[in-house]
Structure formats: C-alpha cells, structure tokens
TrEMBL record:
<dbReference type="Pfam" id="PF00071">
    <property type="entry name" value="Ras"/>
</dbReference>
<dbReference type="InterPro" id="IPR001806">
    <property type="entry name" value="Small_GTPase"/>
</dbReference>
<keyword id="KW-0547">Nucleotide-binding</keyword>
<dbReference type="GO" id="GO:0005525">
    <property type="term" value="F:GTP binding"/>
</dbReference>
<dbReference type="GO" id="GO:0012505">
    <property type="term" value="C:endomembrane system"/>
</dbReference>
<dbReference type="GO" id="GO:0005774">
    <property type="term" value="C:vacuolar membrane"/>
</dbReference>
<comment type="similarity">
    <text>Belongs to the small GTPase superfamily. Rab family.</text>
</comment>
<dbReference type="InterPro" id="IPR027417">
    <property type="entry name" value="P-loop_NTPase"/>
</dbReference>
<keyword id="KW-0813">Transport</keyword>
<keyword id="KW-0636">Prenylation</keyword>
<keyword id="KW-0449">Lipoprotein</keyword>
<keyword id="KW-0472">Membrane</keyword>
<protein>
    <submittedName>
        <fullName>Ras-related gtp-binding protein</fullName>
    </submittedName>
</protein>
<keyword id="KW-0342">GTP-binding</keyword>
<dbReference type="GO" id="GO:0015031">
    <property type="term" value="P:protein transport"/>
</dbReference>
<dbReference type="InterPro" id="IPR005225">
    <property type="entry name" value="Small_GTP-bd"/>
</dbReference>
<dbReference type="GO" id="GO:0003924">
    <property type="term" value="F:GTPase activity"/>
</dbReference>
C-alpha cells in the first residue's frame, strides 16, 4: 500500500492568557481584530488554506486558553502537531519568562519523535502598545532565548495583531516549518488499522 502525504497541518498556539493568541489567529485567518477581550475556554481552532511553495495545504490552527487550569488539555490535543507557536507580550516580562514552561509542557505532552528538532516559532506580540514605549522584553533578549533552544535557532517574529504587523510573514514561516516537519513523516494508510502500528505513528489515531 502506497503511503500518501497529509496536506492538513496541525499548528498549536501556546502562551499565557492575554498575550494575543486569539487575536493573532483571527487577524491571520479572518483579517479581523476585535478590541473586546474574551478569554478562550479550553481550546478552539480555525482553518485556512495556504500555498506553501508549490503545495496547497490546510492549516488547522489551535488556539488554547492560557489559564493554568486549562494547561493540561490532554495528550490527544497536543499529539500530531506539526508546529508549535509560542507567544509572549513584549510589554509583560512574566509572559516571556513562561515561554520555557509552555515549551516544556508541549514536549512532554506531544512527545515528538525528535524533540530537539521539532519546529517551534516564537512571536513577541503587542509591539504597538504605547508606540513601543512600554515594552520590557527586547528583541535581542527574545532572539537570544530562541538561539539557546534545541538544535539551531527558533524563528522569532515581532508582531502586532491589532495593527496587522508581521502576522502574515510569521504564519508563512509557521506553515513552511510545519510542512517541513510533516514531509519527513509520511503516513501509511492501510485498509485495516492495526492498533499497535497505529499507536506508533505520530500519535496514533488521536
């Protein structure tokens, strides 16, 4: 049985509550920004078809609640992710400090085959606030953190969901990295599912 490549890319956005995860996703998918802040309960996702080089892929972007009580969303939620996006607010140091916890949480729950090379992308959001006067996390500091993780640099983008700054560019990078990860693992689709074999494949049936 020939294997076939998936064209569905699962992207998970993690970060503290209020850093703008939902706003970034809505700006990218729906080209909208809402000033009304509504906390995400549990998890939600949007899909968008994108062209990555010569391939048409569907990105399934999962937005998670940043509150700690929702942090343990379960293995099924994280499993099968092709890329993980870590978001912090450049105006709040704690949200940057917590990136380490979110990254660790993802690697524990998703348990990717090659944790050191799993694609992460970091977004420093809300660069528009006070014209940048109130920011406390410098671009240099964020990039330094990205360089220190895994084998090689994690891509870093400074974004404003409100002003639509760098959102398209960031998600283009996310899609490309997700596709690169996905392409290395072709998925075998047999006529009948062998439970043990299925469990060994990228998170199995879940």
């Amino acid at each position: 049985m020939a294997s076939r490549k998936r064209t569905l890319l699962k992207v998970i956005i993690l970060g503290d509550s209020g850093v703008g995860k939902t706003s970034l996703m809505n700006q990218y998918v729906n080209r909208k920004f809402s000033k009304q802040y509504k906390a995400t309960i549990g998890a939600d996702f949007l899909t968008k078809e994108v062209q990555v080089d010569d391939r048409l892929v569907t990105m399934q972007i999962w937005d998670t609640a940043g509150q700690e009580r929702f942090q343990s969303l379960g293995v099924a939620f994280y499993r099968g992710a092709d890329c993980c996006v870590l978001v912090h607010d450049v105006n709040t140091a704690k949200t940057f400090d917590n990136l380490e916890n979110w990254r660790d949480e993802f690697l524990i729950q998703a348990s990717p085959n090659d944790p050191d090379n799993f694609p992460f992308v970091v977004l420093g959001n809300k660069t528009d606030v006070d014209g940048g006067a109130s920011r406390v996390v410098s671009e240099k500091k964020a990039k330094s953190w990205c360089t220190s993780k895994g084998n090689g640099d994690i891509p870093y983008f400074e974004t404003s969901a409100k002003e639509d700054v760098n959102v398209e560019e960031a998600f283009a990078c996310i899609a490309r990295n997700a596709l690169k990860n996905e392409a290395e693992e072709e998925i075998y689709l047999p006529d009948t599912v062998d439970v043990n074999q299925g469990a060994a494949k990228k998170g199995g049936c879940c």
